[in-house]
């Protein structure tokens, strides 16, 4: 779906703002995952996959590619969509986040845009980090991270 906001009516008859967003799940040859440290809400101070709001008429896959570059300095290629989830960030505002499997990262890793830091982390390292809500659960359900 192109664009970043959809105004819909949900149960109860009130209008909710639906913000379209996308993220990229990127791993390296050592099985580590590319994560960014969020510097802004929602969930500032938590590590997560690179991603953000769709802009203009770009596709959600294009959003994942752009956001990965802006936040990490790396160019990636999208392989396939992994799934989606909804994140309620305020009354009447819901982010619909589509996550994509990405590969072939090229470029120089550096934190940019709204990322306070960026790095590659193993499953074991991630278990001890402050992550966004249920990140390990989503990666497991997507089939890219084993229990």
Characteristic key phrases:
single chain, 147 residues, alpha+beta, 5-stranded mixed sheet, 3-stranded antiparallel sheet, 17% helix, disordered N terminus
Shape: globular
| Radius of gyration over all CA atoms, rounded | 15 Å
The counted number of beta strands is 8
Overall mean pLDDT: 89
CA(first)-CA(last) distance = 32 Å
Structural class: alpha+beta
Give unreliable regions as ranges: 1-11
Folded structure, characterized:
There is one protein chain. A hairpin with a 5-residue loop joins strand 1 (5-9) and strand 2. The chain has helices at 60-72, 123-127, 135-141; strands at residues 5-9, 15-26, 33-38, 47-48, 51-53, 74-90, 93-107, 115-121. The strands form two sheets. Strands 1, 2, 5, 6 and 7 form a five-stranded mixed beta sheet that branches. A three-stranded antiparallel beta sheet has the order 4-3-8. Residues 1-11 have low confidence and may be disordered. The protein is α+β, with helices and mostly antiparallel strands and 147 residues long. It is built from three helices and eight strands. The N and C termini lie far apart (32 Å). The radius of gyration is 15 Å and the shape is globular.
């Amino acid at each position: 779906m192109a664009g970043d906001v959809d105004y819909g009516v949900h149960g109860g008859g009130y209008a909710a703002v639906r913000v379209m967003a996308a993220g990229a799940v990127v791993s390296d040859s050592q099985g580590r995952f590319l994560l960014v440290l969020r510097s802004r809400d929602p969930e500032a101070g938590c590590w997560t996959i690179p991603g953000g709001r769709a802009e203009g008429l770009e596709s959600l896959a294009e959003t994942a590619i752009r956001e990965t570059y802006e936040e990490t300095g790396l160019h990636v290629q999208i392989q396939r969509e992994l799934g989606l989830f909804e994140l309620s960030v305020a009354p009447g505002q819901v982010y619909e986040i589509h996550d994509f499997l990405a590969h072939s990262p090229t470029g120089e890793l550096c934190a940019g845009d709204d990322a306070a830091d960026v790095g590659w982390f193993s499953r074991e390292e991630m278990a001890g980090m402050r992550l966004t809500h249920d990140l390990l659960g989503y990666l497991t359900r997507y089939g890219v991270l084993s229990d």
